[in-house]
Structure formats: structure tokens, C-alpha cells
Amino acid sequence: MGLEEKLPAGYALTTVEQVVGLARKSSMWPATFGLACCAIEMMSAGGPDYDIARFGMEKFGATPRQADLMIVAGRVSQKMAPVLRQIYDQMPEPKWVIAMGVCASSGGMFNNYAIVQGVDHIVPVDMYLPGCPPRPEMLLDAVVKLHDKVQNTKLGAHREQEIAETEERMLRRSLPLVDKD
Amino acid sequence: MTTTEDYIDASGGDWDDVIEKAQATSAERLVVNMGPQHPSTHGVLRLILTLDGETCTEARVGIGYLHTGIEKNMEFRTWTQGTTFVTRMDYLTPLFNETAYCLAVEKLLDITDRIPDRANVIRVLVMEINRMASHFVAMATFGMELGATTMMTNGFRERELCLDILELITGLRMNHAYVRPGGVAQDLPPGAVGKIKELLKVMPQRIKVMRKLLDENPIYLARTQDVAHLNLAGCMALGVTGPMVRASGLGWDLRKAQPYCGYEGYDFDVPVSDGGDVYARYRVRVAEMDESLKIIEQCLDKLTPGPVMIEDAKIGWPAKLALGSDGLGNSPDHIAHIMSGSMEALIHHFKLVTEGFRVPEGQAYSAVESAKGELGCHAVSDGGTRPYRVHFRDPSFTHLQAVAAMCEGGTVADVIAAVASIDPVMGGVDR
Amino acid sequence: MSNEYERDRDEQAEELPAVQGRERLAAPVKRTGMFGANTTGDTSGYGGLQVRGSAPVASTRPFADPDDPRTADYDRVADALEAGLGERGDAVERVEVAHGEMTFHVRREALLELVRVLRDDPALRYELCTGVSGVHFPDHEGRELKAVYHFRSITHNSAIRVQTTAPDADPHVPSIVSVYPTNDWHEREAWDFFGIVFDGHPALTRIQMPDDWHGHPQRKDYPLGGVPVEYRGATVPPPDDRRSYQ
């Protein structure tokens, strides 16, 4: 009942944000960051049975400079943490991170001296994927959910406003922090 | 090898500095850093290579980027929970890790002879399926690292066939925690034998396809033949076992030499080749897969009905497990029994599950022939319900020491082939 | 006749429950506490209150147990080693046969010489060393650190274990890399995790932990977790100090 019904056929209207989101999500180039068990499942996801190419992501890049998604697949040791951060820093913006598996998400069962208790200690994470290891289908599900997030990311002033709102909301929330006094 | 002490260090830092240095000197020697994050290093392996043109004059290996502290973590969990940890060491051969660990625990408990036959047959069965899966990944990653993606896609496709069966039996594709001290976690589910028979029908064809693709492929031969040679003396000095030593002409296989889990009752050959190069290792692995199929077939004949966990209430897991709507757990019969039938059974269940069983003081070493070589487990007990110390002698860890011996003097491209032919899994190397 | 009876009675007296109980109570307490672990709040594996240590076992000849086929070869191995060592026979402190495995407890000064005999003597020929495993017993005074080696002979299809100890105050054990090159990384690992210094090792550096790590994490006096993450000057404290999920 609006303007769009008056338009000639063959045109579609959208926002710049949606177009950019579509472009970004349709050809994500993951940087291989295989560490442990999850890496094998990540490689399986690239294999013929699961075929991540259906989502335009078969170009698992070796170089972080031509990648916009880092899938941290496996446990991150204290020795590996600086390497991981360096690779993340080398990736151009915009970039996203999936913490694949419980070890990358929170340290998992390895609550010990050697393992960083969650990769969010060193890089910002967009999607946490549970499982030990997650099945390739679960990785695909995380990827699809991330695509959805990327598609609906706001740009420019909208993005700044969104960040400010999120921060405001986070500040009002009570945090489960240990009392330091 | 050049005699000059001058070299260009490109092992990290700022590229501008490297270029500046390269322009200032006439040195031909270049030190490059490969990994720990590199697509051709088989995981988080770091190689520090000194190159003289295309020749690799020095290869040093840096490991530890996946050190997980599993051995220490196990000291804080019961003996049964230990299987959950060891299965995550070498994540391509989880069932071998579990079996090596359980054999050591059983040796300490002196119950090796009392493990039910059916449990032993199932152990052999799942281990051999696991061996095939591991060898497929070895070939797939080898192909991927050399740029042959067809090998990779084929290898992973074939591996899924093995994983489907392991998933049916254990509930998980990887990290099974299926082999437990005293037996295995649960019996084969209905339909498992049928699925395995299907595998036995399909798999020889798939192996043949792989061999058709590679055996006489001129590019593959050029990349593998006479590359990364390691002779028998080198293997012995460096403690190399498994397919690598068998590719150097010694038919040493723990399944034959020191049989465990009833391997003495199976009829199979140990494939040997005396090439000592990457191609020989490939041929040995492929031949081993055929032998694995032979063993799996014999396992099906040996499967007689019976218990799969030791009949000792002090050690054996009290519950029969069953698949419910919310996953694998105690069977409804068992829950009914302990919750409304027998108070003693409830106490027993509680004690054994939370406290675990005690293992007499002492130490034991048990080794199995994993897909990669001798996988040893040294378990020390102080008489408590938790391991005092568990150490794994992982074949990948030991074999990586051979990189320098195999690569130095060759071209830099052959370094990739050499490392891939070892088939190291960093989860096992670093633990 | 009566003498024999008295001897039997004396032997039985040693096995009386009361005597055994007294001995057990006299043994030093090795571990106390409800849940063995005292470094984390973890409570799985409840293990009773007190565990008492037992005296070191020394097996005597014959080492072969007719009921255990795994031990059949052990007298031959012991003879060959004795012959191979010659006048240095005091290198072996005691021999232990348990769980079908043979352990030679060796003084650390004599380790290198002993493994050379193990490898080179035609009657022994232990070609393969499967590495060294460190074990830390904080309550074994004067011999806290153990270095445990496993050897395998392909020629004779036999396996033995050699164990040597070092005190925490002087954690030195000779390196056997000159005899078994495969032990290079294994010894580095034992140094990294337990702080055992292998004298004569070509390059004893850390292998698993970062080069600037403090401490040897698999020793019993090192906590399981609670390590802060440091990166470029900033430090993130471990989860237990940061969040509370009460």
C-alpha cells in the first residue's frame, strides 16, 4: 500500500547498510587458524561431505592479510597467544572472530597453567561455538548465524549510536565480578 | 653450504628491516621462520630454516604451541576420568591413546587377564577403524600441503566413512572416551555390525581409487621418491617407530612383538618397504589400511556375546549406559534399581562414580602400536583414586626430531614433504 | 621338628593382623585431607583421609615368576647386565619386579655407563629408548625427583625400565643423549616440566613452555591453574580471581 507498489517491476529497494552487509557476508574469506581437534573438524567442514563452499567460504586463506574471518579452532596455549594476537592484528578491518569449541571459548576442560581461559582474553569474539569438538554442521550453523549478524551490521553514525547504546546497557548490568577489596 | 657468517634473518619482525639488511649485504644465506601458523606445517609447528638459495642447510623445530597440560590435569581427576583427557592428546588417534592408558591402569590393577574377551575384540575393532581414519588424514593433509587438493577432499571423504561407524559405536566423531579401565564404555549398538560390514564392502574400492590416483602418478612420484631419506640406523638412533621404521626396512610392530588386547589371535601381515623415503612411507600406510580391513573382518567373527566391562564390582562401572532422549546416560533400569530398589547399590554407585577406584601403588608402562608408532603410557600411582603422574611417550613427538636429519641438504620444497610424511599431530607432540 | 614348628610360628607372628596394623600405623603419613587436591576447589575423586607410604620394594632372585610369562626373560637380563657392568656392579641399587615389569634402580653417577652397556652389550642390545619421564615425589626426602627411562630391545624382544633419582636440592642427572640421541627432546621436556638438569645435554632449553616462563609446571608444588594472561604489558587475571558464579 506504499510507494514500492508504484515502482516498475525488476527493481528492489534496500538500504546501503543491507547492500554492504550482503556483500560482506557473501564472500567471507576465513584465515585458517587450526590449532587442535577442532581444526580437523574445520577441515572436514571444507571437505566434500559438508562443503563450506555452499556459503562462499571455501577460500581458506593462508595469509591473514587477505582474510576477514578468523576461526580459532582449538585450545590456545600461553605460548600461542601472542602469535594469535599478531595474526589478528594483521587482518584488515572489518574482521570477525569465531571461537570454535569450548577450549577457545572458555578454556573448556583444561583449566590449567598452559591454556588461555578463553580466546576472548586476547581478541574480541563475535560468535562462541560450543562443543568438544563441534560437529562440522555446528560450525556451519555458527557461520550462518555470523552471516546474519554481518548482514545486519549498521554503518557510520548508526553503528556509533549502536555501540553507545550497547555500552550503556552493559554498564547498567550487574557483573559477576569478584569483589576486589 | 656457504662458509660466510653473514646471513639475512627473516624469521620475524619488520619487513623493511629485512629488506634493508638484504640490500646492504651480499649474503645468500637466509633464515626464515615457518609457522607456527602456516598452512603447510601440519598444525602449529614452527620450523626455523636456514636457506642457501633453494637448499635448506639447517632445519630447527620449535614446538610447544599447543601445550595443554593434559598430564598435569589428569592428576586432579579420577583414573576413569583420565580417559577423557588422554583422548584429546593425539586427536587423530584418540582410541589408541585411551587403550594405551587403560592398559597401563589395568597393569597396575593386575587385571589384564580378566578383561572380557568381547571388550578386547571391540577395542581392536575400534582401534583398527581409527587407524584407517588416521592414515586417510595423513594422506589428505599431505596432499593439501603439497597443493594436491583432490587428495585432501578424497581423504576426508573416506575418513567420514570411518567416523560414521565410530560415531555409531561411541557416540562421538572424535574424542570418544570410549575405552575405559576394565573394558569399554558400552556394548556395540544394534546395527553396528551391519554398518561395519558395509564399510568392509565399500572401503577396498575407495582405497583402490586412492592408489589409482597416487601410486604411479608422475607428479606425486617426483615429489615423494628419494625425498627425505632416513635409513634404519637413523631410525633407531632417533627412536623412530611405526610406519616410518617399517618404510626403512624393519618390520617392527608391537602388535606382533608384544601383543596386547588379543592381537596374537589375528592373522595379518606387517607391511614393510625398504625405500626409506616419503613414497615408501605412503606405500606402507596404504598397505596397513588393507591389513586393518583384514583385522576388522576377523573381529566380526570373534564377536561373541558377553560382558564388555570387567565383572569386578570394585572397578567396573556400576551402570549400564543407554541412549536416552537427552543423550547417553545411565540406563533407566539401573536408575530404577538404585533409586527405588537397593540402597546399597545407590551407595556403591555414588562411591565408585564420585570417588573412583583405588589403584595400588607402583608404576607401569604399556605401549600400543598406534597409527604413528609406539605410543607408550607411563602411569604412576601412589595408591590413591587419582593418577599420581601419567606421562605419554608420543610417537609424533619423538619423530619430529628426525626433521633435521631428513631435511638438511634438500630443497625447501622437500621440507614440506618430509614433515608431512612423518604425520605429526601437534596435539600429541605438545600434549 | 619343634624347631621347624617354632620357625613357622615366628613367621606367622609377623603376619598377624595386629603386627601388620602396628607397622601400618608406624609408617609415615604420606597424604592427608578429604580430597587429595589442595590447589583447586575441585572435589571429584574423594579419596579418604590418610594415605600411608610403603617401603621401597626390592625383589630377589629368581626374578622369573613361573606363573607370569612376562617375567620369563628377566634372570637372563639381570645376569647379562651384571656381567656387562663388571666391577661397576654397584651401579644398580636394587631391582624391582612388579606387574610383570622389571625396574633397575640406578645411582645417577653410573647412569651413563649403564645405558652404554645396555645399548652395546650383545646380550642386552636395547636399541630403542622410549624417552625419559620425570616424576616428582616431594615427600621422598633426598630423592624427590625421579627420572624414569624405558628401554626396548628389538633383537631380544624385551623391555626394561631404569630409574634414577636426584634430590630437589641438587637436581642433576647425567644426560644420555650421547648414547641415545632420541632422548634429546625427552630430556628437554623433563627439564621444562620438572627442573631436572641433564648434565651434558647439548642444548637444555625449554621445549613446551615459552622461553620466559617461570617455574616448572608439572612439579607437585606448582599449582594446576590460575595463571594470568600477559600481553604487551597488560595483564588479565585468571578467571577465579575475576568472576564469581555463586
TrEMBL record, chain A:
Binds 1 [4Fe-4S] cluster. The keyword Ion transport does not apply. This is NADH-quinone oxidoreductase subunit B. It comes from the Bacteria. Its main location: membrane. Residues 37-146 form the NADH:ubiquinone oxidoreductase-like 20kDa subunit domain. NDH-1 shuttles electrons from NADH, via FMN and iron-sulfur (Fe-S) centers, to quinones in the respiratory chain. The immediate electron acceptor for the enzyme in this species is believed to be a menaquinone. Couples the redox reaction to proton translocation (for every two electrons transferred, four hydrogen ions are translocated across the cytoplasmic membrane), and thus conserves the redox energy in a proton gradient. It holds the Pfam family Oxidored_q6. PROSITE patterns: COMPLEX1_20K. Its EC number is 7.1.1.-. Keywords: 4Fe-4S, Cell membrane, Iron, Iron-sulfur, Membrane, Metal-binding, NAD, Quinone, Translocase, Transport. The keyword 4Fe-4S applies. Its cofactor is [4Fe-4S] cluster. It comes from Nocardiopsis coralli. Belongs to the complex I 20 kDa subunit family. It catalyses: a quinone + NADH + 5 H(+)(in) = a quinol + NAD(+) + 4 H(+)(out). Transmembrane segments: none annotated. NDH-1 is composed of 14 different subunits. Subunits NuoB, C, D, E, F, and G constitute the peripheral sector of the complex. The lineage of its organism: Bacteria, Bacillati, Actinomycetota, Actinomycetes, Streptosporangiales. It is a peripheral membrane protein.
UniProtKB/TrEMBL annotation, chain B:
It is a peripheral membrane protein. InterPro entries: NADH_Q_OxRdtase_suD (IPR001135), NADH_UbQ_OxRdtase_49kDa_CS (IPR014029), NDH1_su_D/H (IPR022885), NiFe-Hase_large (IPR029014). It comes from the Bacteria. It is an enzyme of class 7 (translocase). The keyword Disulfide bond does not apply. The keyword Cell membrane applies. Keywords: Cell membrane, Membrane, NAD, Oxidoreductase, Quinone, Translocase, Transport. One of its GO terms (molecular function) is oxidoreductase activity. Residues 146-431 form the NADH-quinone oxidoreductase subunit D domain. Gene3D superfamilies: Cytochrome-c3 Hydrogenase, chain B. Its EC number is 7.1.1.-. It catalyses: a quinone + NADH + 5 H(+)(in) = a quinol + NAD(+) + 4 H(+)(out). It is found in: Cell membrane. HAMAP family: NDH1_NuoD (MF_01358). NDH-1 shuttles electrons from NADH, via FMN and iron-sulfur (Fe-S) centers, to quinones in the respiratory chain. The immediate electron acceptor for the enzyme in this species is believed to be a menaquinone. Couples the redox reaction to proton translocation (for every two electrons transferred, four hydrogen ions are translocated across the cytoplasmic membrane), and thus conserves the redox energy in a proton gradient. Belongs to the complex I 49 kDa subunit family. NDH-1 is composed of 14 different subunits. Subunits NuoB, C, D, E, F, and G constitute the peripheral sector of the complex. This is NADH-quinone oxidoreductase subunit D. It comes from Nocardiopsis coralli.
Automatic annotation (TrEMBL), chain C:
One of its GO terms (molecular function) is oxidoreductase activity. Its main location: membrane. It catalyses: a quinone + NADH + 5 H(+)(in) = a quinol + NAD(+) + 4 H(+)(out). It is found in: Cell membrane. It holds the Pfam family Complex1_30kDa. It comes from the Bacteria. Its EC number is 7.1.1.-. InterPro entries: NADH_DH_suC (IPR010218), NADH_quin_OxRdtase_su_C/D-like (IPR037232), NADH_UbQ_OxRdtase_30kDa_su (IPR001268). Residues 1-71, 224-246 are annotated as: Disordered. Keywords: Cell membrane, Membrane, NAD, Oxidoreductase, Quinone, Translocase, Transport. Residues 105-226 form the NADH:ubiquinone oxidoreductase 30kDa subunit domain. The keyword Ubl conjugation does not apply. It is an enzyme of class 7 (translocase). It is a peripheral membrane protein. SUPFAM superfamilies: Nqo5-like. Residues 1-10 have a biased composition (Basic and acidic residues). NDH-1 is composed of 14 different subunits. Subunits NuoB, C, D, E, F, and G constitute the peripheral sector of the complex. Belongs to the complex I 30 kDa subunit family. NDH-1 shuttles electrons from NADH, via FMN and iron-sulfur (Fe-S) centers, to quinones in the respiratory chain. The immediate electron acceptor for the enzyme in this species is believed to be a menaquinone. Couples the redox reaction to proton translocation (for every two electrons transferred, four hydrogen ions are translocated across the cytoplasmic membrane), and thus conserves the redox energy in a proton gradient. This is NADH-quinone oxidoreductase subunit C. It comes from Nocardiopsis coralli. The lineage of its organism: Bacteria, Bacillati, Actinomycetota, Actinomycetes, Streptosporangiales. The gene is nuoC.
